[in-house]
Amino acid sequence: MNPTTILQEADALQEILTRYVDSRDGYKQAAETVTDEGLTRTFHHIAERRDRIAGRVAELLHADGRQPDTSGSAEAGVHRWWIRMRDKLSDHDSSTVVEECLRGEKELSRTLHSVAESGNLTADHAPLIADAISEVDLAIRAFELMVDDA
């Protein structure tokens, strides 16, 4: 693999790691925001899964000799602030939190699909990305059903 390809792969993995850190932190906040115990458990479960995947991606970056950045993005910080504001303005209506989670999942899905289609990852990483895409797409469908039922 040439140096340019290695750099592109590392950049793609870092983008995925950043989005997973953002997702984990968002779900932790969502779990603290909602009063429905079922949603709280669901959000904690998703946060734990996102943390595990972020760890796997960080390990891949370490294996490539890179130092993973696990700080997340400023964009996600603004999104979490927006979730808190919507929650307060909606009188703690869980459906607004679910809508924001759905929006975040769609953004994560776009990132994963973009990286998968870019050709910047090795075949060794394909199973991890495929699993991640499947999990996120499943969450999107579940949240869409919740939003439709609200």
Automatic annotation (TrEMBL):
User: Where is the DUF2383 domain positioned along the sequence?
Assistant: 10-114
| Upper lineage | Bacteria, Pseudomonadati, Verrucomicrobiota, Verrucomicrobiia, Verrucomicrobiales
The cross-references to NCBIfam families, in alphabetical order and at most eight, read:
PA2169 family four-helix-bundle protein
Q: What is this protein called?
A: PA2169 family four-helix-bundle protein
Domain of life, per UniProt, equals Bacteria
Origin organism is Luteolibacter ambystomatis
What single Pfam family name could you report for this chain, choosing any that match?
DUF2383
